[in-house]
Amino acid sequence: MPDSTRRGLLIILSSPSGAGKSTLARRLMDWDPTLRFSVSATTRAPRPGETDGVEYFFKSRAEFQDMVMAGEMLEHAEVFGNLYGTPKGPVEAAMAQGRDTLFDVDWQGGQQIRNSALGKDVISIFILPPSITELESRLRGRAQDSDEVIRGRMEKSLSEISHWSEYDYVLVNDDLDRAEEKLRTILSAERQRRDRQVWLNDFVRGLNREFERR
Ligand SMILES: Nc1nc2c(ncn2[C@@H]2O[C@H](COP(=O)(O)OP(=O)(O)O)[C@@H](O)[C@H]2O)c(=O)[nH]1
Ligand SMILES: Nc1ncnc2c1ncn2[C@@H]1O[C@H](COP(=O)(O)OP(=O)(O)O)[C@@H](O)[C@H]1O
């Protein structure tokens, strides 16, 4: 439930391509429809079935650079030869409404969001595949990318994985149901921590007022 007295959390999911972050993000949003997905802008071509404004805002390089120059991006980075970035406005609006936002960004985006003015409300989660063989078979099984694209993503997988220790939580996406359950647990616990802080702030303000009245 949106609540203007509390801040929204920024929940960052990163992983090597194919480890399952989009799948897990979709499941989390089915579980909790109040979660908002941060739709990134990208210069990558749409895959079959992808819709502009749903999975991504598909942009030309010039349009993307204009957004960057206009200061509209919370973060942006080049990944696999394409530009990706997070539009800032919708994130700030969600934060102000106390709505939690999910981000599917690479390690560079994770670092930039953590170091931004919104960094104190970030919860970051790194998702590992159970094995490199399974990672490749998921990329192939998704049947969305050419052999060359899959090869490029596999080549970059270890450098993405090398950033795991920068994240608050790391989980292995072996069994999908179990991985989703772990994500739900993380989110529930972090929300409780956030809400406790809001509640305690109010409570201590009350103690102060009581003290002044005496
Ligand atoms: N820094 C950054 N990375 C992004 C953003 N959106 C997506 N990515 C990352 O770009 C990479 C490629 O994403 P995509 O083309 O959808 O391929 P997929 O991860 O294989 O489904 C993934 O690591 C995403 O997490 C963004 O807004 N900023
Ligand atoms: N735990 C899992 N077990 C088996 N297949 C999975 C699992 N998680 C995701 N997948 C499948 O692996 C492929 C890649 O998942 P996806 O969510 O697109 O990865 P990412 O967003 O990290 O690139 C998809 O076809 C998805 O259905």
UniProtKB/TrEMBL annotation:
GO molecular function, one term: ATP binding
Pfam families: Guanylate_kin
Enzyme class: transferase
EC identifiers of the protein: 2.7.4.8
Residue spans crossing the bilayer: none
GO CC, alphabetical: cytosol
Source organism superkingdom: Bacteria
Reactions it catalyzes: GMP + ATP = GDP + ADP
Keywords, alphabetical: ATP-binding, Cytoplasm, Kinase, Nucleotide-binding, Transferase
Subcellular location field: Cytoplasm
Annotated InterPro entries: GK/Ca_channel_bsu (IPR008145), Guanylate_kin-like_dom (IPR008144), Guanylate_kinase (IPR017665), Guanylate_kinase_CS (IPR020590), P-loop_NTPase (IPR027417)
Record Gene3D superfamilies: Guanylate Kinase phosphate binding domain (3.30.63.10), P-loop containing nucleotide triphosphate hydrolases (3.40.50.300)
Signal peptide as annotated in the record: none
Primary location: cytoplasm
Keyword Methyltransferase in record: no
Keyword Cytoplasm: yes
Binding-site list for ATP: 15-22
Residue ranges occupied by any Guanylate kinase-like domain in the UniProt entry: 8-188
NCBIfam families cross-referenced by the UniProt entry: guanyl_kin (TIGR03263)
Primary role: Essential for recycling GMP and indirectly, cGMP.
UniProt family annotation: Belongs to the guanylate kinase family.
Name of the protein this chain belongs to: Guanylate kinase
